[in-house]
Amino acid sequence: MMINKIKYSIIILLVLASFTGCQNDDVVTANVDAMVSEPGDLLNQTFPLRKIRVEGEGLSGLKKITLDNKIDISFNPTYNSDKAFIFTIPFDDKLGSRFGVQPITFVTATGSVTKDIEILQPTPTIVKTIPAVATPGFPLAIEGTWFYNVSSVTVGGKAVSYTVNSSSSIIIGLPSNAVSGEELAITTPGGTVKKSIDFEKVILVSNFDGGGSRESWSSYGDVASFDASTTGGPTGNYATLTWTGSTANGYNGSSGGGGANFLSATNTDATRTFIDIDVSANVIGAQFAIQLNTIEGINYGYNFKITDVNWSTKTILLSYFKDNYGFGGNSAATLDASKINEIKVGIAQGDTPNPSTIKYDNIKVRYK
What we know:
Structural class: mainly beta
Oligomer: single chain
């Protein structure tokens, strides 16, 4: 009987061992067959911020995903089965994200598996430039995305100096001879992005040093004295006009004369046209009168008073001009800016101290 009991015990142990062995055979170790980037069909490659579909076996009970041995990736366990799961590839400079081939480790309920995945660099983008209308010879800020490993920046096909502030910001130096409409191109290993740049057009009317298009000035009307080459201005010579109370003509002014239009035929918008002039005076309250050439029978002007006798730059939007020499009720908002060919500077003598001496320099017309 004892022998039979021993036999039965051995048989039971063998059966249990066989059953346990069958159970272990059913457990599948975690294995990854493919990592597919969505959308698209990149295999074991992806761009940052793309969804990845991992396919394989033994993938249920996903516990952890680690990229490049240092970046833990979050995931939604809802999208996890024994055959697949989905997650999004992150990209964060602060965490040490990089491009290129790197390991990625998946820890599931049945084990751990490590594969190589290649993070591809996206093509950069340009979102905007600051200012929106650039000025040749001045810096230009560019905001965009994926400004990593920048290899070149060109304007009009020519290399320019640049500083990469971050992956979303670059500052470039625009050449002084840059032309509106030229193409800005930024190149990285991810590709090249291009954008046409609109440049501010600046016409120097007069700097009273011989550099402008109108440098031979004269005065008219009730002017007591006029000097178009007074020394000691902000950038050299400047013009000085004095009125001492005469009303024989009822007006006064000075001009460098007319000639070719300052702007091209396509620069018509008065809301994009500016007149800059450096100004000063002998007394607060001296009233400048800025006038244009007669355009389609209308005389547009803009009048303003000095609030500080020190030199300052006055910027006037063309659409702020009014008819009747600046005293009318109709603005120049619809004026064709391309028809301006003369800038006149005088004193509005009806509301100004007596005497008034105005000083002016560096008259420019800008279109942006």
